[in-house]
């Protein structure tokens, strides 16, 4: 089963997604983390999140320099491990922060997104995917912000189409959009 959990920043979407794994499972769930420590404050955020989930999840921190997200997902799925993928926003943001041209960044995003969407059809594990909802805010005043919102909005729509369940979380409260 594929579940997509959407919400704004600090909406409670991550906590809600993590709670979905509190049920008993034969296998310890895997938490695929996509955040990278770009500064001291982000390092502290990551450390805080790691300490909260340490006992519940085995964590795999995505290495953007040599790992494709689709391959990591398939690897854990082949071992029938339940998976929490957190978060598509930070994953996509990484692709926009490379030193490549805008055109190449968009090609990379499209290729990686296509590989991700294709691999979802091959998963034998339950997966919960977390992403920020970008459709409720203002249009950014800069080109990178607009590209981010456009690409994440497209990815969220494609993920929602593939998902068996889609939940929107606001103020910690879930609203089931698709089941």
Describe this structure in words.
By secondary structure, the chain is of the alpha/beta class. It has a single domain, classed as Rossmann fold (3-Layer(aba) Sandwich), CATH 3.40.50. Helix content is 44%, strand content 20%. The protein is built from six helices and seven strands. It has a seven-stranded mixed sheet with strand order 3-2-4-5-1-6-7, sandwiched between helices. A hairpin with a 2-residue loop joins strand 6 (165-170) and strand 7. It starts with a strand and ends with a strand. The relative contact order is 0.23.
Question: What's the structural blueprint in terms of helices and strands?
Answer:
Layout: E1 2-7, H1 13-19, E2 30-33, H2 40-53, E3 58-61, H3 69-77, E4 83-86, H4 88-96, H5 102-120, E5 127-132, H6 143-162, E6 165-170, E7 173-178
Parallel strand pairs: 1-5, 1-6, 2-3, 2-4, 4-5
Antiparallel strand pairs: 6-7
């Amino acid at each position: 089963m594929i579940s997509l959990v959407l919400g704004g920043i600090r909406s409670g979407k991550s906590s809600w997604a993590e709670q979905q794994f509190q049920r008993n499972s034969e296998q310890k769930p895997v938490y695929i983390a996509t955040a990278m420590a770009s500064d001291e404050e982000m390092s502290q955020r990551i450390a805080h999140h790691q300490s909260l989930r340490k006992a519940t999840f085995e964590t795999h921190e995505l290495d953007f320099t040599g790992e494709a997200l689709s391959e990591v997902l398939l690897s854990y799925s082949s071992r029938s491990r339940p998976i929490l993928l957190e978060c598509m926003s930070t994953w996509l943001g990484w692709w926009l922060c490379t030193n490549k041209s805008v055109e190449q960044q968009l090609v990379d995003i499209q290729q990686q997104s296509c590989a991700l969407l294709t691999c979802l059809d091959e998963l034998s594990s339950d997966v919960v995917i977390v992403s920020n909802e970008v459709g409720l805010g203002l249009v950014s005043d800069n080109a990178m912000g607009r590209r981010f919102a456009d690409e994440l909005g497209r990815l969220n729509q494609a993920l929602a189409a593939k998902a068996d369940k889609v939940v929107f979380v606001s103020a910690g409260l879930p609203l089931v959009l698709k089941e």
